[in-house]
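lol ok so funny story. i was supposed to be doing the assay writeup but got distracted and ended up predicting the structure for this chain instead. priorities right. anyway since i did it might as well share w the group, maybe its usefull for someone
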Amino acid sequence: MLGIRTFDPLTGGNMAYKALTHPLAAEKLAELADRLVANGPVAVYDPHGIVETALALLPVPIRVAGLYTHDSLQVGQSCAGMVMQPLVDLTQSEAASVWALDFSHAIMESRLSGLLPEGCALHTLASTRLPDSMLSVAHTYLDPLNFGTNLAFFRDTADFSTRLVSANYWARYGADNVRLWLRLFSQDGQVLHTWEQPVSHAGQAIILDSAEIRDRFGLPEFTGQLFIHAQGIAGHDVVKYALETRGRGDNANSLSVTHDANAWPAMRYANLPAPAEYEDVVLWLQNSHALPVASGSMSLNRMGHDRHVPFMRPLAPYETVAVHVQDILPDLKWPEQIEFRAGSYVVRPRYEITRRNRTRIAHLNVQRADLHTDPGIEKLDPRFFGRGYLLPFPVPDPARYRTLIQPAPMAESLRTMPVRVDCFNRDGRAGASHFMGCLPRDHAEVVDVSALTGTEGHAELVYDFRDGGEADGWLHALVRYEDRETGHEAETSFGSHIFNTVMTYRGEPQSYVGRPPGLSTRLFLTAATTEPFSFCTLIYPASASWNPMSDTSLYLHGANGSVIAQEKIAIPMSGSRTIWPHEVFGMQAIQRAGEGGYVLIRDTTCRLFGYHGRMIRREGRFSVDHMFGF
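and the output, tada:
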Protein backbone atom coordinates (compact mmCIF):
# COMPACT_ATOMS: atom_id res chain seq x y z
CA MET A 1 0.00 0.00 0.00
CA LEU A 2 1.28 3.45 -0.94
CA GLY A 3 0.33 4.98 2.39
CA ILE A 4 -0.29 8.58 1.41
CA ARG A 5 -3.27 10.86 1.01
CA THR A 6 -3.67 11.94 -2.58
CA PHE A 7 -7.07 13.62 -2.83
CA ASP A 8 -9.82 14.62 -0.44
CA PRO A 9 -13.16 15.98 -1.74
CA LEU A 10 -13.27 18.61 1.03
CA THR A 11 -9.67 19.85 1.10
CA GLY A 12 -8.75 19.07 -2.50
CA GLY A 13 -5.64 17.44 -3.87
CA ASN A 14 -2.30 16.86 -2.21
CA MET A 15 -0.21 19.04 -4.50
CA ALA A 16 3.06 17.80 -3.03
CA TYR A 17 2.05 14.37 -4.33
CA LYS A 18 1.42 15.79 -7.81
CA ALA A 19 4.71 17.71 -7.71
CA LEU A 20 6.82 14.71 -6.69
CA THR A 21 5.19 12.12 -8.98
CA HIS A 22 5.57 14.09 -12.19
CA PRO A 23 7.92 11.89 -14.27
CA LEU A 24 10.57 14.61 -14.48
CA ALA A 25 10.38 15.32 -10.75
CA ALA A 26 10.45 11.60 -9.92
CA GLU A 27 13.77 11.26 -11.76
CA LYS A 28 15.25 14.12 -9.73
CA LEU A 29 13.78 12.77 -6.49
CA ALA A 30 15.60 9.48 -7.09
CA GLU A 31 18.89 11.35 -7.50
CA LEU A 32 18.20 13.29 -4.29
CA ALA A 33 17.43 10.06 -2.42
CA ASP A 34 20.81 8.63 -3.47
CA ARG A 35 22.57 11.70 -2.09
CA LEU A 36 20.66 11.51 1.20
CA VAL A 37 21.49 7.82 1.63
CA ALA A 38 25.18 8.41 0.84
CA ASN A 39 25.47 11.19 3.43
CA GLY A 40 24.22 9.10 6.37
CA PRO A 41 21.48 9.84 8.93
CA VAL A 42 19.08 12.62 7.92
CA ALA A 43 17.23 15.14 10.10
CA VAL A 44 13.94 16.02 8.38
CA TYR A 45 12.31 19.43 8.78
CA ASP A 46 8.66 19.38 7.69
CA PRO A 47 7.33 22.94 7.38
CA HIS A 48 4.26 22.02 5.32
CA GLY A 49 3.10 18.64 6.68
CA ILE A 50 4.20 16.59 3.68
CA VAL A 51 6.71 14.21 5.29
CA GLU A 52 4.53 11.11 4.80
CA THR A 53 4.18 11.91 1.10
CA ALA A 54 7.89 12.62 0.62
CA LEU A 55 9.09 9.48 2.43
CA ALA A 56 6.56 7.24 0.66
CA LEU A 57 7.71 8.43 -2.76
CA LEU A 58 11.44 7.92 -2.20
CA PRO A 59 12.67 4.99 -4.30
CA VAL A 60 15.15 4.01 -1.56
CA PRO A 61 14.62 4.32 2.22
CA ILE A 62 16.66 6.84 4.18
CA ARG A 63 17.72 6.67 7.81
CA VAL A 64 15.80 9.45 9.58
CA ALA A 65 17.62 10.80 12.64
CA GLY A 66 14.70 12.99 13.72
CA LEU A 67 11.59 14.80 12.49
CA TYR A 68 11.35 18.52 13.26
CA THR A 69 8.56 21.10 13.17
CA HIS A 70 8.25 24.81 13.82
CA ASP A 71 4.62 24.38 14.95
CA SER A 72 4.62 24.29 18.73
CA LEU A 73 1.23 22.55 18.76
CA GLN A 74 2.69 19.66 16.76
CA VAL A 75 5.65 19.07 19.05
CA GLY A 76 5.33 15.66 20.71
CA GLN A 77 2.74 14.46 18.20
CA SER A 78 3.29 11.29 16.19
CA CYS A 79 3.78 11.57 12.43
CA ALA A 80 5.12 9.02 9.93
CA GLY A 81 5.89 6.73 12.87
CA MET A 82 8.07 9.36 14.59
CA VAL A 83 7.64 11.89 17.38
CA MET A 84 7.88 15.46 16.13
CA GLN A 85 10.60 17.53 17.78
CA PRO A 86 10.89 21.34 18.10
CA LEU A 87 12.91 23.02 15.38
CA VAL A 88 14.98 24.89 17.96
CA ASP A 89 16.53 21.55 18.97
CA LEU A 90 17.81 20.86 15.43
CA THR A 91 21.25 22.10 16.46
CA GLN A 92 21.56 19.12 18.82
CA SER A 93 20.92 16.55 16.10
CA GLU A 94 23.68 14.06 15.26
CA ALA A 95 22.44 13.82 11.68
CA ALA A 96 24.91 14.08 8.81
CA SER A 97 22.51 16.19 6.72
CA VAL A 98 19.24 18.09 7.03
CA TRP A 99 16.40 17.65 4.55
CA ALA A 100 13.96 20.56 4.55
CA LEU A 101 10.73 19.63 2.76
CA ASP A 102 10.26 22.87 0.86
CA PHE A 103 10.70 23.68 -2.83
CA SER A 104 12.66 26.91 -2.19
CA HIS A 105 16.26 26.28 -1.20
CA ALA A 106 16.97 29.97 -0.57
CA ILE A 107 14.14 30.34 1.93
CA MET A 108 15.16 27.23 3.82
CA GLU A 109 18.80 28.26 3.80
CA SER A 110 17.87 31.61 5.35
CA ARG A 111 15.49 30.12 7.91
CA LEU A 112 17.85 27.38 9.07
CA SER A 113 21.17 29.23 8.82
CA GLY A 114 21.64 29.33 12.60
CA LEU A 115 20.12 25.94 13.34
CA LEU A 116 22.11 23.52 11.20
CA PRO A 117 24.33 21.16 13.21
CA GLU A 118 28.01 21.68 12.55
CA GLY A 119 29.13 20.11 9.29
CA CYS A 120 25.57 19.31 8.15
CA ALA A 121 24.68 19.76 4.49
CA LEU A 122 21.26 21.24 3.72
CA HIS A 123 19.04 19.51 1.16
CA THR A 124 15.59 20.68 0.05
CA LEU A 125 13.07 19.72 -2.61
CA ALA A 126 14.27 22.53 -4.85
CA SER A 127 16.29 20.09 -6.95
CA THR A 128 13.07 18.27 -7.92
CA ARG A 129 11.34 21.39 -9.27
CA LEU A 130 10.12 21.48 -12.83
CA PRO A 131 11.61 24.22 -15.02
CA ASP A 132 9.84 27.56 -14.68
CA SER A 133 8.91 27.31 -18.38
CA MET A 134 6.61 24.39 -17.50
CA LEU A 135 4.71 26.29 -14.79
CA SER A 136 1.39 28.05 -15.26
CA VAL A 137 1.80 30.04 -12.01
CA ALA A 138 5.53 30.65 -11.61
CA HIS A 139 5.39 32.48 -8.26
CA THR A 140 3.57 29.68 -6.37
CA TYR A 141 5.13 26.31 -7.12
CA LEU A 142 2.43 24.13 -5.52
CA ASP A 143 -0.42 26.00 -7.19
CA PRO A 144 -2.81 23.34 -8.61
CA LEU A 145 -2.59 24.97 -12.05
CA ASN A 146 1.09 24.00 -12.22
CA PHE A 147 0.13 20.34 -12.12
CA GLY A 148 -2.74 19.93 -14.53
CA THR A 149 -1.74 16.35 -15.22
CA ASN A 150 -3.41 13.07 -16.08
CA LEU A 151 -2.74 9.62 -17.47
CA ALA A 152 -4.44 7.80 -20.33
CA PHE A 153 -4.53 4.13 -21.28
CA PHE A 154 -2.92 4.32 -24.71
CA ARG A 155 -2.11 1.66 -27.30
CA ASP A 156 -1.51 1.07 -30.96
CA THR A 157 -1.23 -2.53 -32.08
CA ALA A 158 -2.37 -4.76 -34.93
CA ASP A 159 -5.63 -5.23 -33.03
CA PHE A 160 -6.40 -1.80 -31.54
CA SER A 161 -5.80 1.92 -31.84
CA THR A 162 -6.69 4.72 -29.42
CA ARG A 163 -7.59 8.35 -29.87
CA LEU A 164 -7.77 10.96 -27.12
CA VAL A 165 -9.95 13.99 -27.84
CA SER A 166 -10.65 17.18 -25.92
CA ALA A 167 -10.44 20.95 -26.43
CA ASN A 168 -8.63 23.99 -25.08
CA TYR A 169 -11.25 24.88 -22.48
CA TRP A 170 -8.65 26.76 -20.42
CA ALA A 171 -8.78 29.68 -22.85
CA ARG A 172 -12.21 30.72 -21.62
CA TYR A 173 -10.56 31.38 -18.24
CA GLY A 174 -7.87 33.61 -19.78
CA ALA A 175 -5.13 31.15 -20.79
CA ASP A 176 -3.41 32.23 -24.00
CA ASN A 177 -0.42 29.90 -24.39
CA VAL A 178 -1.61 26.37 -23.64
CA ARG A 179 0.69 23.51 -24.53
CA LEU A 180 0.87 19.84 -23.66
CA TRP A 181 3.95 18.06 -22.34
CA LEU A 182 3.54 14.40 -23.23
CA ARG A 183 5.43 11.24 -22.30
CA LEU A 184 4.50 7.83 -23.68
CA PHE A 185 5.42 4.73 -21.67
CA SER A 186 5.66 1.24 -23.16
CA GLN A 187 4.07 -1.84 -21.64
CA ASP A 188 7.21 -2.57 -19.60
CA GLY A 189 7.32 1.02 -18.34
CA GLN A 190 10.11 2.33 -20.54
CA VAL A 191 9.92 5.80 -22.07
CA LEU A 192 8.99 5.49 -25.74
CA HIS A 193 8.93 9.18 -26.51
CA THR A 194 8.59 12.63 -24.92
CA TRP A 195 7.33 15.65 -26.84
CA GLU A 196 5.34 18.87 -26.61
CA GLN A 197 2.25 19.89 -28.53
CA PRO A 198 0.96 23.49 -28.69
CA VAL A 199 -2.76 24.17 -28.25
CA SER A 200 -2.57 27.90 -28.79
CA HIS A 201 -6.07 28.82 -30.05
CA ALA A 202 -9.08 29.35 -27.79
CA GLY A 203 -11.36 26.33 -28.06
CA GLN A 204 -8.89 24.50 -30.30
CA ALA A 205 -9.48 20.76 -30.59
CA ILE A 206 -7.01 18.42 -28.94
CA ILE A 207 -6.42 15.17 -30.80
CA LEU A 208 -3.84 12.59 -29.74
CA ASP A 209 -4.15 9.69 -32.15
CA SER A 210 -2.04 6.61 -31.42
CA ALA A 211 -1.57 5.69 -35.08
CA GLU A 212 -0.48 9.21 -36.04
CA ILE A 213 1.90 9.43 -33.06
CA ARG A 214 3.38 6.05 -33.81
CA ASP A 215 3.95 6.97 -37.44
CA ARG A 216 5.31 10.47 -36.67
CA PHE A 217 7.95 9.25 -34.24
CA GLY A 218 8.69 5.87 -35.82
CA LEU A 219 7.56 3.89 -32.78
CA PRO A 220 6.95 0.15 -32.46
CA GLU A 221 3.59 -1.28 -31.39
CA PHE A 222 2.74 -0.26 -27.85
CA THR A 223 0.25 -0.91 -25.07
CA GLY A 224 0.99 1.47 -22.24
CA GLN A 225 0.08 4.82 -20.82
CA LEU A 226 0.36 8.42 -21.86
CA PHE A 227 1.27 11.05 -19.26
CA ILE A 228 -0.27 14.45 -20.05
CA HIS A 229 0.81 17.75 -18.49
CA ALA A 230 -1.20 20.79 -19.59
CA GLN A 231 0.90 23.97 -19.22
CA GLY A 232 0.00 27.64 -19.45
CA ILE A 233 -3.50 26.87 -18.21
CA ALA A 234 -5.99 28.92 -16.19
CA GLY A 235 -9.20 28.33 -14.26
CA HIS A 236 -9.25 24.53 -14.34
CA ASP A 237 -6.49 22.16 -13.18
CA VAL A 238 -8.15 18.97 -14.45
CA VAL A 239 -7.25 17.43 -17.82
CA LYS A 240 -10.53 16.09 -19.21
CA TYR A 241 -10.85 13.95 -22.30
CA ALA A 242 -12.75 11.22 -24.09
CA LEU A 243 -10.73 8.14 -25.08
CA GLU A 244 -11.82 6.20 -28.15
CA THR A 245 -10.68 2.62 -28.73
CA ARG A 246 -11.18 1.12 -32.18
CA GLY A 247 -10.59 -2.44 -33.29
CA ARG A 248 -8.50 -3.53 -36.25
CA GLY A 249 -8.09 -6.77 -38.12
CA ASP A 250 -9.84 -9.62 -36.31
CA ASN A 251 -11.16 -7.07 -33.80
CA ALA A 252 -12.68 -4.76 -36.40
CA ASN A 253 -16.09 -5.05 -34.73
CA SER A 254 -14.79 -3.53 -31.49
CA LEU A 255 -15.54 0.10 -30.61
CA SER A 256 -15.45 1.86 -27.24
CA VAL A 257 -15.41 5.38 -25.82
CA THR A 258 -14.51 5.99 -22.19
CA HIS A 259 -14.28 9.04 -19.96
CA ASP A 260 -11.01 10.51 -18.71
CA ALA A 261 -9.03 8.79 -15.97
CA ASN A 262 -9.32 10.22 -12.48
CA ALA A 263 -5.96 11.92 -12.01
CA TRP A 264 -5.62 10.80 -8.38
CA PRO A 265 -4.89 7.19 -7.39
CA ALA A 266 -7.21 5.57 -4.85
CA MET A 267 -7.14 2.70 -2.39
CA ARG A 268 -10.14 0.88 -3.87
CA TYR A 269 -12.19 0.80 -7.06
CA ALA A 270 -15.56 -0.71 -7.93
CA ASN A 271 -17.80 -1.26 -10.99
CA LEU A 272 -15.69 -4.22 -12.13
CA PRO A 273 -18.07 -6.93 -13.39
CA ALA A 274 -17.34 -10.64 -13.15
CA PRO A 275 -17.24 -12.37 -16.55
CA ALA A 276 -20.46 -13.68 -18.06
CA GLU A 277 -20.58 -16.89 -20.07
CA TYR A 278 -18.11 -16.83 -22.98
CA GLU A 279 -16.51 -13.65 -21.67
CA ASP A 280 -12.92 -12.82 -20.75
CA VAL A 281 -12.63 -9.80 -18.43
CA VAL A 282 -9.19 -8.18 -18.36
CA LEU A 283 -8.28 -5.61 -15.74
CA TRP A 284 -5.53 -3.35 -17.04
CA LEU A 285 -3.14 -2.62 -14.18
CA GLN A 286 -1.02 0.44 -14.89
CA ASN A 287 1.53 1.50 -12.30
CA SER A 288 1.14 5.28 -12.09
CA HIS A 289 4.46 5.93 -10.37
CA ALA A 290 8.21 5.74 -10.84
CA LEU A 291 8.28 3.26 -7.93
CA PRO A 292 8.00 -0.52 -8.30
CA VAL A 293 4.95 -2.26 -6.86
CA ALA A 294 5.74 -5.34 -4.79
CA SER A 295 4.07 -8.68 -5.50
CA GLY A 296 0.83 -9.07 -3.54
CA SER A 297 0.30 -5.34 -3.02
CA MET A 298 -2.96 -5.30 -5.01
CA SER A 299 -5.87 -7.71 -4.85
CA LEU A 300 -9.38 -8.56 -5.99
CA ASN A 301 -12.37 -9.73 -3.96
CA ARG A 302 -16.03 -10.33 -4.49
CA MET A 303 -17.83 -7.15 -3.51
CA GLY A 304 -18.94 -7.35 0.12
CA HIS A 305 -16.67 -10.29 0.99
CA ASP A 306 -13.51 -10.04 3.07
CA ARG A 307 -11.50 -12.74 1.29
CA HIS A 308 -9.36 -10.95 -1.26
CA VAL A 309 -6.92 -12.67 -3.60
CA PRO A 310 -3.62 -10.85 -4.19
CA PHE A 311 -2.10 -10.31 -7.59
CA MET A 312 1.18 -12.17 -7.18
CA ARG A 313 3.37 -10.33 -9.64
CA PRO A 314 5.50 -7.22 -9.10
CA LEU A 315 5.07 -4.21 -11.37
CA ALA A 316 7.97 -2.14 -12.61
CA PRO A 317 7.65 1.66 -12.64
CA TYR A 318 4.94 2.74 -15.12
CA GLU A 319 4.43 -0.86 -16.24
CA THR A 320 1.15 -2.04 -17.78
CA VAL A 321 -0.10 -5.57 -17.07
CA ALA A 322 -3.22 -7.36 -18.29
CA VAL A 323 -4.85 -9.32 -15.48
CA HIS A 324 -7.45 -11.90 -16.47
CA VAL A 325 -10.06 -11.76 -13.73
CA GLN A 326 -10.95 -15.42 -14.15
CA ASP A 327 -7.37 -16.37 -13.23
CA ILE A 328 -7.70 -14.56 -9.90
CA LEU A 329 -11.35 -15.30 -9.04
CA PRO A 330 -12.31 -18.35 -11.13
CA ASP A 331 -15.60 -19.02 -9.32
CA LEU A 332 -17.22 -15.63 -9.89
CA LYS A 333 -19.71 -15.05 -12.69
CA TRP A 334 -21.77 -12.08 -13.85
CA PRO A 335 -23.79 -10.48 -12.31
CA GLU A 336 -21.49 -10.79 -9.29
CA GLN A 337 -19.39 -7.68 -8.69
CA ILE A 338 -15.69 -7.33 -7.93
CA GLU A 339 -13.81 -4.88 -5.77
CA PHE A 340 -10.27 -3.90 -6.76
CA ARG A 341 -7.97 -3.05 -3.83
CA ALA A 342 -5.38 -0.95 -5.63
CA GLY A 343 -3.39 0.40 -2.69
CA SER A 344 -3.16 3.87 -4.33
CA TYR A 345 -0.72 2.57 -6.94
CA VAL A 346 -2.90 3.25 -9.99
CA VAL A 347 -5.26 5.94 -11.24
CA ARG A 348 -8.75 4.89 -12.29
CA PRO A 349 -8.07 1.74 -14.33
CA ARG A 350 -9.78 0.35 -17.40
CA TYR A 351 -11.24 -3.10 -17.86
CA GLU A 352 -11.77 -4.86 -21.17
CA ILE A 353 -14.33 -7.53 -21.96
CA THR A 354 -13.94 -9.87 -24.92
CA ARG A 355 -16.94 -11.92 -26.01
CA ARG A 356 -16.50 -13.97 -29.14
CA ASN A 357 -15.13 -11.52 -31.75
CA ARG A 358 -16.10 -8.29 -29.99
CA THR A 359 -14.23 -6.32 -27.38
CA ARG A 360 -15.50 -3.46 -25.25
CA ILE A 361 -13.67 -1.33 -22.74
CA ALA A 362 -14.90 0.72 -19.77
CA HIS A 363 -13.52 2.26 -16.60
CA LEU A 364 -13.76 1.50 -12.90
CA ASN A 365 -14.79 4.19 -10.41
CA VAL A 366 -13.10 5.38 -7.24
CA GLN A 367 -14.53 3.82 -4.11
CA ARG A 368 -14.38 6.54 -1.48
CA ALA A 369 -12.83 5.92 1.94
CA ASP A 370 -13.88 9.27 3.41
CA LEU A 371 -17.62 8.92 2.86
CA HIS A 372 -20.04 7.67 5.51
CA THR A 373 -23.78 7.10 5.56
CA ASP A 374 -25.94 10.20 5.90
CA PRO A 375 -29.25 9.76 7.78
CA GLY A 376 -30.28 13.18 6.50
CA ILE A 377 -30.84 11.84 2.98
CA GLU A 378 -33.82 9.75 4.09
CA LYS A 379 -35.28 12.86 5.74
CA LEU A 380 -34.85 15.26 2.81
CA ASP A 381 -37.91 17.49 2.54
CA PRO A 382 -39.70 16.51 -0.70
CA ARG A 383 -40.93 20.11 -0.97
CA PHE A 384 -37.29 21.17 -1.34
CA PHE A 385 -35.74 18.19 -3.13
CA GLY A 386 -38.52 16.07 -4.61
CA ARG A 387 -37.08 12.60 -5.28
CA GLY A 388 -33.63 13.72 -4.11
CA TYR A 389 -30.57 12.05 -5.59
CA LEU A 390 -31.00 10.76 -9.17
CA LEU A 391 -28.77 8.66 -11.40
CA PRO A 392 -30.14 9.19 -14.94
CA PHE A 393 -29.22 6.90 -17.83
CA PRO A 394 -30.49 6.40 -21.41
CA VAL A 395 -32.91 3.67 -22.40
CA PRO A 396 -32.65 3.26 -26.19
CA ASP A 397 -35.38 1.60 -28.27
CA PRO A 398 -36.23 -1.60 -26.31
CA ALA A 399 -37.16 -3.40 -29.52
CA ARG A 400 -33.52 -3.16 -30.60
CA TYR A 401 -31.51 -2.72 -27.39
CA ARG A 402 -31.50 -4.39 -24.02
CA THR A 403 -30.69 -2.06 -21.09
CA LEU A 404 -29.45 -3.57 -17.83
CA ILE A 405 -28.68 -1.68 -14.64
CA GLN A 406 -26.73 -2.93 -11.63
CA PRO A 407 -26.34 -0.68 -8.55
CA ALA A 408 -22.80 -0.68 -7.15
CA PRO A 409 -21.45 0.35 -3.71
CA MET A 410 -19.02 3.22 -4.16
CA ALA A 411 -17.90 3.85 -0.58
CA GLU A 412 -15.94 1.46 1.62
CA SER A 413 -18.38 1.87 4.53
CA LEU A 414 -21.65 1.32 2.63
CA ARG A 415 -23.50 -1.88 3.60
CA THR A 416 -26.94 -1.53 1.98
CA MET A 417 -28.49 0.23 -1.00
CA PRO A 418 -32.27 0.85 -0.88
CA VAL A 419 -33.10 1.69 -4.51
CA ARG A 420 -35.75 1.75 -7.18
CA VAL A 421 -35.81 2.51 -10.92
CA ASP A 422 -38.14 5.21 -12.32
CA CYS A 423 -38.76 5.25 -16.07
CA PHE A 424 -39.63 8.17 -18.38
CA ASN A 425 -40.37 8.40 -22.09
CA ARG A 426 -38.62 10.90 -24.36
CA ASP A 427 -41.24 13.59 -23.64
CA GLY A 428 -40.87 13.34 -19.88
CA ARG A 429 -43.96 11.31 -19.08
CA ALA A 430 -43.42 9.02 -16.10
CA GLY A 431 -43.80 5.31 -16.77
CA ALA A 432 -43.08 2.13 -14.87
CA SER A 433 -41.31 2.12 -11.53
CA HIS A 434 -39.56 -0.88 -9.99
CA PHE A 435 -38.39 -1.23 -6.38
CA MET A 436 -35.20 -3.30 -6.36
CA GLY A 437 -35.20 -3.67 -2.58
CA CYS A 438 -32.76 -2.86 0.17
CA LEU A 439 -29.78 -4.47 -1.55
CA PRO A 440 -26.86 -5.82 0.52
CA ARG A 441 -23.30 -4.83 -0.36
CA ASP A 442 -22.62 -8.21 -1.98
CA HIS A 443 -25.79 -8.27 -4.09
CA ALA A 444 -25.81 -9.58 -7.65
CA GLU A 445 -29.09 -8.02 -8.78
CA VAL A 446 -29.70 -6.68 -12.29
CA VAL A 447 -32.84 -5.07 -13.72
CA ASP A 448 -33.73 -5.26 -17.41
CA VAL A 449 -35.03 -1.72 -17.78
CA SER A 450 -35.93 -2.22 -21.44
CA ALA A 451 -38.45 -4.88 -20.41
CA LEU A 452 -39.69 -2.67 -17.59
CA THR A 453 -40.41 0.45 -19.63
CA GLY A 454 -41.18 -0.83 -23.13
CA THR A 455 -40.42 2.58 -24.66
CA GLU A 456 -37.44 4.69 -25.64
CA GLY A 457 -36.41 7.38 -23.17
CA HIS A 458 -34.44 7.27 -19.97
CA ALA A 459 -34.59 5.92 -16.44
CA GLU A 460 -33.34 7.09 -13.06
CA LEU A 461 -31.99 5.11 -10.14
CA VAL A 462 -33.19 6.70 -6.88
CA TYR A 463 -33.18 5.97 -3.17
CA ASP A 464 -36.25 4.25 -1.72
CA PHE A 465 -36.30 3.58 2.04
CA ARG A 466 -39.56 1.61 2.28
CA ASP A 467 -37.62 -1.42 3.62
CA GLY A 468 -35.03 0.60 5.52
CA GLY A 469 -31.39 0.84 4.50
CA GLU A 470 -28.75 3.55 4.33
CA ALA A 471 -27.56 6.17 1.86
CA ASP A 472 -24.42 8.23 1.35
CA GLY A 473 -25.34 10.41 -1.64
CA TRP A 474 -22.79 8.60 -3.81
CA LEU A 475 -25.21 6.20 -5.51
CA HIS A 476 -23.55 4.49 -8.48
CA ALA A 477 -24.46 1.85 -11.00
CA LEU A 478 -23.15 -0.02 -14.01
CA VAL A 479 -25.39 0.22 -17.10
CA ARG A 480 -24.95 -2.36 -19.84
CA TYR A 481 -26.42 -2.14 -23.35
CA GLU A 482 -26.85 -5.05 -25.78
CA ASP A 483 -27.85 -4.86 -29.45
CA ARG A 484 -30.37 -7.67 -29.86
CA GLU A 485 -29.62 -7.97 -33.58
CA THR A 486 -25.83 -7.97 -33.67
CA GLY A 487 -24.86 -8.93 -30.11
CA HIS A 488 -22.63 -5.86 -29.76
CA GLU A 489 -22.46 -4.57 -26.18
CA ALA A 490 -21.32 -1.39 -24.44
CA GLU A 491 -21.37 -0.24 -20.85
CA THR A 492 -20.88 2.78 -18.65
CA SER A 493 -21.00 3.70 -14.98
CA PHE A 494 -21.58 6.87 -13.06
CA GLY A 495 -23.09 8.34 -9.89
CA SER A 496 -26.07 10.33 -8.68
CA HIS A 497 -26.71 14.01 -8.04
CA ILE A 498 -29.59 16.20 -6.97
CA PHE A 499 -30.75 17.90 -10.16
CA ASN A 500 -32.38 21.28 -10.74
CA THR A 501 -33.65 22.39 -7.34
CA VAL A 502 -33.45 25.90 -5.91
CA MET A 503 -32.64 24.61 -2.42
CA THR A 504 -29.25 23.05 -1.76
CA TYR A 505 -28.00 20.13 0.33
CA ARG A 506 -24.32 19.36 0.98
CA GLY A 507 -23.11 20.92 -2.27
CA GLU A 508 -25.99 19.66 -4.39
CA PRO A 509 -27.30 20.35 -6.98
CA GLN A 510 -23.97 20.79 -8.71
CA SER A 511 -23.21 22.91 -11.74
CA TYR A 512 -20.50 22.38 -14.34
CA VAL A 513 -19.08 25.74 -13.29
CA GLY A 514 -19.60 27.77 -10.14
CA ARG A 515 -21.24 26.86 -6.88
CA PRO A 516 -24.64 25.22 -6.41
CA PRO A 517 -27.48 25.42 -7.11
CA GLY A 518 -26.64 23.92 -10.46
CA LEU A 519 -28.48 25.76 -13.16
CA SER A 520 -26.11 25.47 -16.10
CA THR A 521 -24.79 22.96 -18.60
CA ARG A 522 -21.57 22.90 -20.61
CA LEU A 523 -20.92 19.54 -22.28
CA PHE A 524 -18.39 18.41 -24.88
CA LEU A 525 -19.31 16.13 -27.82
CA THR A 526 -17.11 15.12 -30.73
CA ALA A 527 -18.45 15.73 -34.25
CA ALA A 528 -17.14 13.00 -36.53
CA THR A 529 -16.78 13.65 -40.25
CA THR A 530 -17.06 9.93 -41.13
CA GLU A 531 -18.35 6.76 -39.51
CA PRO A 532 -18.39 5.84 -36.73
CA PHE A 533 -20.52 8.95 -36.24
CA SER A 534 -20.76 10.66 -32.86
CA PHE A 535 -23.99 10.92 -30.92
CA CYS A 536 -25.16 11.77 -27.45
CA THR A 537 -28.27 11.28 -25.37
CA LEU A 538 -29.16 14.42 -23.44
CA ILE A 539 -31.33 13.92 -20.38
CA TYR A 540 -33.16 16.66 -18.47
CA PRO A 541 -33.43 15.13 -14.98
CA ALA A 542 -35.37 16.98 -12.31
CA SER A 543 -35.41 16.01 -8.65
CA ALA A 544 -38.31 18.41 -8.08
CA SER A 545 -40.37 20.58 -10.42
CA TRP A 546 -38.30 22.92 -12.62
CA ASN A 547 -38.68 24.68 -15.98
CA PRO A 548 -41.13 22.84 -18.25
CA MET A 549 -38.67 22.94 -21.16
CA SER A 550 -34.93 23.35 -21.48
CA ASP A 551 -33.42 26.16 -23.54
CA THR A 552 -30.46 24.32 -25.01
CA SER A 553 -27.98 25.62 -27.56
CA LEU A 554 -25.70 23.42 -29.67
CA TYR A 555 -22.56 25.14 -30.97
CA LEU A 556 -20.58 23.40 -33.71
CA HIS A 557 -16.89 24.32 -33.38
CA GLY A 558 -14.22 23.83 -35.98
CA ALA A 559 -10.98 22.10 -35.08
CA ASN A 560 -9.40 25.56 -34.66
CA GLY A 561 -12.04 26.53 -32.08
CA SER A 562 -14.14 28.82 -34.27
CA VAL A 563 -17.94 28.53 -34.15
CA ILE A 564 -19.23 27.12 -37.45
CA ALA A 565 -22.96 26.89 -36.69
CA GLN A 566 -25.54 27.04 -33.91
CA GLU A 567 -28.82 25.23 -33.36
CA LYS A 568 -31.42 25.36 -30.60
CA ILE A 569 -33.34 22.45 -29.11
CA ALA A 570 -35.83 22.10 -26.27
CA ILE A 571 -36.09 19.06 -24.00
CA PRO A 572 -39.13 18.58 -21.77
CA MET A 573 -38.48 18.30 -18.04
CA SER A 574 -37.73 14.63 -17.26
CA GLY A 575 -37.40 14.02 -20.98
CA SER A 576 -34.47 13.21 -23.27
CA ARG A 577 -33.19 13.67 -26.80
CA THR A 578 -30.61 11.81 -28.90
CA ILE A 579 -28.35 14.21 -30.81
CA TRP A 580 -26.44 13.26 -33.96
CA PRO A 581 -24.24 16.24 -34.93
CA HIS A 582 -24.09 15.29 -38.61
CA GLU A 583 -27.90 15.26 -38.73
CA VAL A 584 -28.45 18.40 -36.65
CA PHE A 585 -25.95 20.55 -38.57
CA GLY A 586 -25.70 18.66 -41.88
CA MET A 587 -22.66 16.97 -43.35
CA GLN A 588 -21.51 20.10 -45.15
CA ALA A 589 -21.11 21.97 -41.84
CA ILE A 590 -19.47 18.95 -40.22
CA GLN A 591 -16.97 18.78 -43.07
CA ARG A 592 -16.23 22.50 -42.61
CA ALA A 593 -15.55 21.87 -38.92
CA GLY A 594 -12.95 19.34 -40.00
CA GLU A 595 -11.24 16.49 -38.22
CA GLY A 596 -11.42 17.31 -34.52
CA GLY A 597 -14.56 19.43 -34.81
CA TYR A 598 -16.84 19.24 -31.81
CA VAL A 599 -20.14 20.40 -30.36
CA LEU A 600 -20.41 22.44 -27.18
CA ILE A 601 -23.77 21.96 -25.49
CA ARG A 602 -24.85 24.97 -23.41
CA ASP A 603 -27.88 25.63 -21.25
CA THR A 604 -28.18 28.35 -18.60
CA THR A 605 -31.69 27.39 -17.48
CA CYS A 606 -31.06 23.88 -16.15
CA ARG A 607 -28.44 21.22 -15.71
CA LEU A 608 -28.61 18.47 -18.29
CA PHE A 609 -26.84 15.15 -18.06
CA GLY A 610 -25.44 13.41 -21.10
CA TYR A 611 -23.97 10.20 -22.47
CA HIS A 612 -21.82 10.23 -25.59
CA GLY A 613 -20.83 7.52 -27.98
CA ARG A 614 -19.94 6.44 -31.49
CA MET A 615 -21.88 4.18 -33.81
CA ILE A 616 -21.74 2.48 -37.20
CA ARG A 617 -25.43 1.83 -37.71
CA ARG A 618 -25.20 -0.71 -40.50
CA GLU A 619 -22.82 -2.90 -38.46
CA GLY A 620 -24.38 -2.38 -35.05
CA ARG A 621 -21.09 -1.21 -33.55
CA PHE A 622 -21.58 1.38 -30.84
CA SER A 623 -20.16 2.73 -27.61
CA VAL A 624 -21.48 4.80 -24.73
CA ASP A 625 -20.10 6.59 -21.67
CA HIS A 626 -21.03 9.66 -19.65
CA MET A 627 -20.03 13.04 -21.06
CA PHE A 628 -17.72 15.57 -19.46
CA GLY A 629 -18.24 19.29 -18.96
CA PHE A 630 -16.03 22.24 -18.20
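The two ends are 33 Å apart (CA to CA). The CA atoms of residues 377 and 467 lie 15 Å apart.
back to the writeup now i swear
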